[in-house]
Write a structure and sequence with these properties.
Low-confidence stretches: 94-107
Oligomer: single chain
Shape: globular
Structural class: mainly beta
Helix content: under 10%
Length: about 110
């Protein structure tokens, strides 16, 4: 299953989402401009986050990336504060030389 391209684009009513375990892919711009979204819970079986998926989700402060994630598209988290990103498999997303690992890439 997948969440299609632009499925929730500009849905300002979304505050948090819990993507069903059956979803393997989140399409391009699926949550783009969901400016009030604060948290996204992704399934462990998710394999792909396409480009601009969470583009300009200005309040998205917490997200955990699944360990088996295979693809993160360009600008998937563009202009997201993402203060709490758990990404065990993706050290390139972390600030180097910091004890507290913080989101760095995909802007």
């Amino acid at each position: 299953e997948e969440i299609g391209e632009g499925a929730f684009l500009g849905c300002h009513a979304l505050r948090s989402i819990r993507v069903p375990q059956s979803v393997k892919q989140i399409g391009k711009s699926a949550f783009m401009y969901c400016e009030d979204m604060e948290q996204a819970v992704l399934p462990s079986d998710l394999r792909r986050i396409e480009e601009e998926t969470f583009f300009l989700c200005k309040k998205l402060s917490r997200i955990e990336l699944p360990e088996d994630l295979e693809h993160i598209g360009d600008k998937a988290f563009y202009r997201c504060p993402c203060e709490h990103v758990i990404a065990k498999k993706y050290p390139r997303l972390y600030q180097p030389d910091e004890k507290q690992k913080k989101f760095f890439g995909l802007f």
